[in-house]
Amino acid sequence: MIELGKIQTLKIAREKEFGVYLEDGTGASVLLPKRQVPNGKSVGDELTVFVYKDSRDRLIATTKKPLMSVGEISKVVVKDVTNIGAFVDIGLERDVLLPYHEMRYEIKKGDTVEVYLYVDHSQRLAATMFTKKHEDATVIKNDEIKTYFYEQNADEVLKILKEKFDGHVPYTDKTVQPDEIQRDFGMSKAAFKRAVGKLLKEGKIKITKTSIFCLY
Fold first, then answer.
1. What does each C-alpha distance from 104 to 28, 60, 128 come to in angstroms?
2. Which domains does the chain have, with CATH numbers?
3. CA 152 – CA 156 distance, rounded (Å)
4. Which value, in Å, is the radius of gyration of the alpha carbons in the chain?
5. Distance between CA atoms of residues 110 and 136, nearest Å
6. CA 99 – CA 23 distance, rounded (Å)
7. Which residues have a Cβ under 8 Å from the Cβ of 103 and sit 6 or more positions away?
8. Where does residue 109 rank: exposed (0-12), middle (13-18), buried (19+ CB within 10 A)?
9. What's the rounded Cα separation, in Å, for the pair 181 and 200?
10. The pTM is what?
């Protein structure tokens, strides 16, 4: 059974131009878009993925690990507030709805709130601030949240470095100005420095006196 909002291991069953279809043991399938398929993987190989719904309400898989899964509690950032509720960031391409009736108090864009992730009556991922109703839920600790976002920022820096700047920028984490980092990478200088430090430690980049280079 393919579970919405859960991390699970599925097998590649079919390859298409736009991605691969993953199957569980019952024959149910879900699409993993081409950009998410790791190099060298083919029919018969297993992949660990998270399953959610796209903007057209279709099940879709991602190899990107989210901050939290269904049944877990974590602190998340409010990305927007609309007429149907707020949208919170759990690390996916699509933010999760926090309905007004699931808010304990008024919130605004940029706030950090603690939520429980669940599947609502329409079979979509949703969040609630009434976390005390779910005392048995797994709580994502603050240090785990920090580690998650450090890893996400590092992945994003490496991706932008490769795709936008052809593997090289003419500055370092020490010489660059905060507005340049915001313009080029969409993050603060502090977050950029942490990401660069992680990538350097992992051997994925090289830093000279004037530049940062991608090593692969």
1. 38, 31, 9
2. 7-62 (2.40.50.140), 72-139 (2.40.50.140), 142-214 (1.10.10.10)
3. 6
4. 19
5. 28
6. 32
7. 85, 86, 129
8. exposed
9. 17
10. 0.74
In which region does residue 171 sit, left (phi positive, over 0), alpha (psi from -120 to 50) or beta (all else)?
A: beta
Instruction: Provide the angle, in degrees to the nearest 10, between the axes of the packed helices 189-201 and 178-185.
Output: 70
Tokens of 88: 């919170």
Digits of tens for pLDDT over the chain (216 positions)?
A: 899 999 999 999 999 989 999 999 888 999 999 988 888 888 889 999 999 998 888 999 999 899 999 999 999 999 999 999 999 999 998 999 999 999 999 999 999 999 999 999 999 999 999 998 898 888 988 888 888 888 888 888 998 999 899 999 999 989 989 999 989 988 888 889 989 998 999 899 999 999 999 986
Cα separation, 164 vs 107, whole angstroms: 35
Nearest-angstrom CA–CA distance, 59 and 145: 26
